[in-house]
Amino acid sequence: MNIMLVSVTERTREIGVRKALGATRMNIMMQFLIEALTLCLLGGVLGVLLGVGTAVLLSRVMHWNTLISPMAVGVAFAFSAAVGLFFGIYPARRAAGLDPIVALRYE
């Protein structure tokens, strides 16, 4: 959520320009929600790759039997998406609620 709040703060002028040109609250909210979801799913992909890689490495080096469950991978992606949506809603609402004139004056 902190990353998204910083993103909103850094892009205040951009948000002001978009709103001044006719972007609706929903357009701004969707932009930031999609960004938050993308970041979290990318983190989920990296986490799954790291976990699978570690499991395969331990299996070969330590001669352990490991099982990578597709259900666990699916749950990990679903949880990652849920975190992205949950913690992306507040920054997206904050960005969508900015007054275009105040946002354009922001330095």
Strand-residue proportion:
under 5%
> What is the molecular shape?
elongated
Structure classification: mainly alpha
Total strands: the figure is 0
C-alpha termini separation: 22 Å
Tally the structural domains. Answer: 1
Spatial extent as radius of gyration: 19 Å
Largest sheet: none
Helix-strand pattern, N to C?
Answer: HHHHH
Number of helices: 5
Indicate the mean pLDDT: 89
The percentage helix is over 70%
Low-pLDDT parts are: none
Question: What can you see in these coordinates?
Answer:
- This protein is mainly α and 107 residues long.
- It has one domain.
- 82% of the residues lie in helices and 0% in strands.
- The longest helix is centred in the middle third of the chain and has 37 residues.
Summarize the structure.
The chain has helices spanning 2-10, 12-20, 25-61, 70-96, 100-105.
Set down the secondary structure blueprint:
Blueprint: H1 2-10, H2 12-20, H3 25-61, H4 70-96, H5 100-105
Helix pairs in contact: 1-4, 3-4
